[in-house]
Design brief:
The chain is α+β, with helices and mostly antiparallel strands. The protein has helices at 30-33, 54-59, 112-116, 118-122, 233-238, 252-261, and strands spanning 8-9, 21-22, 40-45, 62-63, 67-75, 78-82, 89-93, 97-105, 156-163, 169-186, 195-202, 204-207. It folds into two domains: 25-77 and 91-215, Pnp Oxidase, Chain A, CATH 2.30.110; 216-262, no CATH class.
């Protein structure tokens, strides 16, 4: 009878057994510890993240729903150089440049341009009073469409939160000083939805912490440590490596009862 092999991670090259181990970390429950689109939250808010308390900035953010896709990229202009008398190369780099593209379902309520400018509207700005109004004469309108309006010279910020299925934070960043440079909407016969598309530039991308936003208040013993995934209670409970339970307040006897009933 073949010996059952429990997968592990490669610690160094001497432990590399490619038929028996993963590279970097144990991946037996990677579906729980991976980022998913439905565990990603996109928000609009003030133009700068700096010099504000974390909770204060989060209170000013507006979650944007109905987003179908978002791409964020950074490019750093880099020029390869050489000098006379040497065969070795070197590089001259400039400031990183960021841009993003957002596609959102066109639905009744705040359209995408209105949602992105939420910080300006919450500050008391009347979008109908500019020389080029962003919306029609009703300042309560939820549809903004005129990129030539002075309203769209006011920058804004955007935050993106990533979590896994265990509610653990994977990462988060804040795009500062965003400026919209294009807006598009298209309709064609036979299509079953209408989409808005916005492209924008931003000054810099700041890594941030969500400070527990979206984390259940009750400790549910499912914290995942990528450095030692086999030590997490949910892993041990699922793979029966110990008698622990992932349910708070549930004792070992209850776990055994569940096993007998199943």
């Amino acid at each position: 009878m073949a010996t059952q092999v429990t997968p592990s991670a490669v610690v160094d090259t001497s432990s590399w057994k490619f038929q028996q181990s993963y590279v970097e970390r144990l991946m037996d429950h990677s579906a729980l510890s991976s980022a998913h689109p439905d565990d990603t939250l996109i928000l609009a808010g003030p133009p700068r993240m700096v010099n504000q308390k974390p909770q204060a900035i989060f209170d000013q953010l507006l979650p944007i729903g109905m987003i179908q896709s978002m791409q964020v990229s950074q490019q750093k202009p880099t020029t390869p150089m050489q000098a006379v008398g040497s065969g070795r190369g070197f590089y001259i780099s400039g400031k990183a440049q960021g841009q993003a593209n957002i596609q959102r379902l066109f639905v009744n309520g705040r359209n995408l341009l209105r949602a992105l400018q939420t910080n300006a509207i919450r500050s008391g700005i009347d979008a109908t009073k500019f020389d080029e109004p962003a919306t029609w004469h009703n300042k309560e309108s939820k549809f903004y469409a005129n990129l030539d309006s002075e309203l769209f010279l006011i920058p804004f910020g955007m935050a993106v939160f990533f979590r896994d299925k265990l509610h653990d934070e994977i990462g988060a960043f804040y795009m500062e000083l965003c400026q919209i440079n294009s807006w598009a909407i298209g309709v064609s016969a036979g299509q079953n939805m209408v989409m808005e598309n916005v492209s924008l530039f931003f000054d810099r991308l700041m890594p941030i912490s969500t400070h527990g936003s979206g984390k259940p208040e009750e400790e549910n013993l499912v914290n995942y440590n990528p450095m030692s995934p086999g030590d997490s209670p949910i892993f041990q409970a699922i793979f029966k490596d110990s008698g622990v339970t992932v349910n708070p307040g549930e004792g070992l006897d209850t776990v055994l009862d569940h096993d007998l009933d199943s």
